[in-house]
Design a protein that fits this description.
The chain is α+β, with helices and mostly antiparallel strands and 219 residues long. It has three helices and 15 strands. The chain folds into two domains: 29 residues; 182 residues, no CATH class.
Length: 219
């Protein structure tokens, strides 16, 4: 009887180990290390957007290489969390601080230089303002969906949804991510070629891109 009991215990432990490994593999498919805890309802409705920055000692993206940003009518380079070059008719420099809730856009368009700071507002949401034709536009991150791989923003009263497409999602990072959104009834896409991005970087780099478009009449 003791032998049968021992054998049953061994099989039970083996089954439990296999189940735990399966769950661990599934957990790697969602960006849990880059987001704060999000309820199932928030994932579905995208009505909350709290991005958790990289923690000390946590693995981060390696952006030391100089890679291209693939997009129509652009000549942009991505390096070390920074976008620089020509975006349509403007020269831009966009920097995303990985460990802080902060991003910076400097933009030269038709003889005028604008500097935009993207940082947390009074509600704790990432937000930035830019001007075009004497009108101020405010872009704010208001929601996200892990399941749909989407970021949701408001541009004044307009809602902008950004879809994230990638080759794979590994170690909480999108591999070769492509971002797609509609602004002023026109669809825009841009891709970080031969690179990767977490949710935090994706949110900030997308805000830099959208603000640069708005600052030259894209809204």
């Amino acid at each position: 009887m003791f032998k049968k009991l021992f054998t049953s215990l061994v099989f039970a432990l083996a089954a439990l180990t296999a189940f735990s490994c399966k769950d661990a593999d599934l957990s790697n498919q969602v960006p849990s290390t880059d987001l704060s805890t999000i309820s199932a309802a928030q994932q579905t409705t995208s009505n909350s957007a709290t991005i958790t920055e990289h923690q000390e000692g946590e693995a981060e993206e390696d952006h030391s290489a100089f890679t291209r940003v693939l997009a129509e009518n652009t000549d942009l380079t991505f390096h070390d969390h920074t976008l620089s070059g020509r975006l349509h008719s403007a020269l831009i420099w966009g920097e995303s601080a990985c460990k802080d809730s902060f991003a910076l856009l400097k933009m030269r368009f038709k003889g005028v230089t604008q500097e935009v700071r993207v940082e947390k507002n009074e509600e704790g949401k990432l937000s930035g303002k830019i001007n075009f034709n004497q009108k101020e536009y405010q872009l704010t991150l208001v929601g996200l969906s892990q399941t749909k791989k989407e970021l949701r923003y408001t541009l004044n009263d307009e809602v902008i949804t950004v879809r994230i497409l990638s080759d794979t999602f590994e170690n909480a990072h999108f591999q070769n991510p492509q971002y797609e959104f509609t602004l002023n009834n026109k669809t825009y896409t841009f891709k970080l070629d031969q690179n990767e991005a977490c949710w935090s970087l994706s949110a900030k780099i997308t805000m830099i891109y959208i603000l640069a478009l708005v600052g030259q009449g894209g809204a």
